[in-house]
Write a sequence for this structure.
């Protein structure tokens, strides 16, 4: 009994410790964004200092934050919607009408995530050039859709697997077509799972930096390109970079905060039977 | 069930709205091209440093004088910029009209036919006013392919207050033996002052930039005339031993992760007695807004061991026009403006003489206003003028470049060797091991790329 109580006492403490550890870099970035450049590199690091907004002002003068942010919004939402439109029918077929090749197909889809992105940079760059998709939002939307598709299919597949087949059979007995079955029965039942998959896809697209830096220049550049412009080869830059990063992650952080209940519910959906 | 239907209807509405929004955005995006509203759009890829930020600020003057041109800036971190522009130029992407490249890339890219020649610049541009070593570095087969935005060499910075206290007088041309002695005298870690700060962060443009100048002046070179790597020679051994010993005894802790910026921060907050690095730091260290030691920083030429050539490097950031530019005439007008004498005047008027881009034009250094504002001007000029990219070592070399080798493979070789040198500095390898492994890796690279059998 005694050991049980001590275990209970330790768990929340450990949870808090891990949470603080994970959150610390974000916290440090946040406070660094209010320091002067010299204070940002001071050793020992300063926890108490005279806060200043000069970095945020300097950033606003140098780059148009809202153009980058709007690109991020359009690209991550576009890629997520497109991925869902493709993944839902695929996952439906794989969960309810599996064939001999289904398991293999699922594994093969995942294997595309195992290739380092830089390995296909030049072919994709040339394809994008030939199709006029360099520096366009639609180009990035297509790339992100393809990148996230394996994860999205896998997640939705596992959520669909949780839905008892009997419900669908009953529905079919009542004369529902495949589309009606999908729309009126399956999607509502798996909605928490689909919502959390969509959230994850948005977050992944928002944070993706390799393709967004390589395939965009000006018109379609998202917030990752905005951050990359504040690192300097010569001169101090940590405070400004921290301010740019804070502004870049703020929307997705708030979005994640607001939707965390949905996210946690979806991610633990079917975890305990 | 009713609840689900309501939720799905709401979700459907949201999805329809988002798809609509997206379509509008996509149509908008497709309509943009190099010509918009009758104006020629120039896309300029550049790095984020003080001089480039000033150029961005002042570019409104250029747009006012050239109302038919609209400038679009793509500012990226140095390594990302290098990767991004290389991908675009090599695969003929045509995304950029003006590129910011270094003196390492300029001749390599010109040789591959990626850059437009800049021999047709107008007479009033006065191309002969460019500093000769910088101009040579940006040329290929005597044709200019990039125009310098700023240029730099390397030099020695020291704390005059600490040196006065120790009774040391620094000559204008110090030696590495003297520097080691002084480092010992001013080293005072209890009070947070380290005798010597040098680059340790691995990278061909980081620790290897400094180390290559050290090897040069110790009499070494990267390759013999048949492209055999010569890292396992006594000259390299002596240079690397010197570097590791001085840094282990008088360097700051964690020196193997210090690059230019980290050392700049250390020196400007009073933590270094001496520092050997880019001349561009002189202006930053003399600026009281950025440096706590602005009034006690002394300047001298980069130290020398046995061979004076090659002890101070030569680098410039320059503007070039890729062959794939869709508006080469407008791009040429811009690069000529941004590197002209008039531009230097404009910066002086708006930001003061100390802020003008250094290391590019003779006329800047002949200007008494600049000489008065920048006490380090003469040392910088002499350093740049003495840097000889054609004879970096006492031994003949098959390559050009003081702190780099002008072959595309050098980035990879330099960085790999840099990692082994950083390991030696961090005591993870002995100097002998680092040298032997560096020689191996360089030989392997050169064999794979067909330079040697």
């Amino acid at each position: 009994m005694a050991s049980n109580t001590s275990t209970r006492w330790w768990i929340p403490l450990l949870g808090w410790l891990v949470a603080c550890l994970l959150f610390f870099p974000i916290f440090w970035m946040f406070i660094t964004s209010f320091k002067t450049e010299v204070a940002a590199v001071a050793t020992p690091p300063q926890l108490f200092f005279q806060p200043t907004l000069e970095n945020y002002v300097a950033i606003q003068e140098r780059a148009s934050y809202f153009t980058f942010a709007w690109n991020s919004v359009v690209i991550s939402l576009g890629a997520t919607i497109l991925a869902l439109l493709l993944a839902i029918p695929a996952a439906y077929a794989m969960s309810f009408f599996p064939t001999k090749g289904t398991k293999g197909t699922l594994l093969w889809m995942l294997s595309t995530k195992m290739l380092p992105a830089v390995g296909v940079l030049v072919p994709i760059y040339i394809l994008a050039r030939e199709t006029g998709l360099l520096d366009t939002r639609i180009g990035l939307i297509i790339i992100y859709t393809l990148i996230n598709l394996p994860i999205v299919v896998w997640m939705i597949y596992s959520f669909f697997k949780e839905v008892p087949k009997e419900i669908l059979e009953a529905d079919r007995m009542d004369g529902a077509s495949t589309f009606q079955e999908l729309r009126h029965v399956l999607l509502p039942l798996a909605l928490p799972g689909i919502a959390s998959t969509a959230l994850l896809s948005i977050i992944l697209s928002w944070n993706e930096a390799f393709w967004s830096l390589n395939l965009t220049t000006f018109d379609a550049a998202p917030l990752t390109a905005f951050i990359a412009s504040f690192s300097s080869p010569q001169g101090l830059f940590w405070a400004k970079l921290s301010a740019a990063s804070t502004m870049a992650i703020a929307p997705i952080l708030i979005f994640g905060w607001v939707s965390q209940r949905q996210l946690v519910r979806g991610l633990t959906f079917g975890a305990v039977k | 069930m009713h609840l689900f239907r309501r939720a799905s209807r709401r979700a459907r509405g949201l999805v329809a709205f988002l798809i609509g929004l997206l379509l509008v955005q996509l149509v908008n995006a497709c309509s943009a091209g190099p010509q918009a509203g009758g104006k020629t759009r120039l896309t300029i890829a550049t790095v984020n440093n003080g001089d480039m930020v000033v150029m961005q600020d002042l570019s409104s003057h250029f747009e006012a004088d050239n109302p038919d041109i609209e400038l679009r800036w793509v500012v990226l971190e140095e390594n990302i910029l290098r990767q991004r522009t290389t991908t675009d130029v090599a695969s003929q992407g045509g995304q950029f009209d003006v590129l910011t490249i270094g003196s390492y890339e300029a001749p390599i890219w010109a040789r591959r036919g990626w850059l437009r020649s800049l021999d047709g610049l107008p007479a009033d541009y006065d191309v002969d006013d460019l500093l000769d070593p910088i101009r040579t570095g940006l040329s290929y087969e005597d044709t200019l392919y990039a125009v310098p935005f700023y240029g730099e060499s390397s030099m020695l910075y020291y704390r005059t207050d600490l040196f006065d206290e120790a009774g040391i007088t620094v000559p204008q041309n110090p030696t590495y033996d003297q520097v080691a002695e002084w480092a010992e005298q001013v080293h005072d870690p209890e009070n947070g002052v380290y005798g010597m700060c040098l680059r340790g962060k691995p990278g061909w443009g980081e620790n290897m930039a400094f180390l290559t100048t050290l090897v040069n002046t110790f009499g070494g070179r990267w390759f013999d005339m048949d492209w055999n790597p010569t890292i396992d020679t006594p000259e390299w051994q002596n240079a690397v031993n010197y570097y590791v010993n001085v840094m282990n005894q008088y360097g700051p802790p964690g020196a193997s992760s210090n690059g230019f910026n980290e050392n700049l921060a250390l020196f400007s907050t009073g933590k270094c007695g001496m520092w050997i690095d880019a001349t561009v730091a002189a202006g930053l260290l003399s600026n009281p807004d950025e440096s706590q030691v602005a009034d006690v920083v002394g300047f001298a030429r980069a130290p020398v061991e046995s061979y004076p050539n090659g002890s101070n490097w030569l680098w410039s950031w320059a503007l070039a026009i890729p062959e794939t530019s869709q508006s080469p005439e407008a791009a040429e007008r811009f690069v000529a403006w941004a590197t002209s004498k008039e531009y230097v005047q404009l910066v002086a008027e708006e930001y003061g003489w100390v802020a003008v881009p250094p290391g590019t034009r003779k006329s800047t250094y002949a200007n008494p206003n600049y000489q008065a504002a920048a006490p380090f001007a003469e040392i910088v000029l002499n350093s740049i003028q003495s840097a000889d990219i054609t004879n970096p070592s006492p031994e003949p070399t098959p390559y050009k470049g003081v702190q780099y080798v002008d072959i595309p493979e050098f980035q990879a070789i330099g960085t790999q060797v840099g990692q082994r040198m950083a390991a030696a500095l961090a005591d993870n390898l002995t100097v002998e091991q680092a040298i032997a492994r560096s020689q191996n890796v360089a030989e392997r690279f050169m064999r794979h790329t067909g330079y040697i059998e």
User: Anything to note?
Assistant: Chain A has two domains: 2-54, 64-269. The mean pLDDT of chain A is 88. Residues 2-54 of chain A form one domain. Chain A touches chain B through 46 residues (CB under 8 Å).
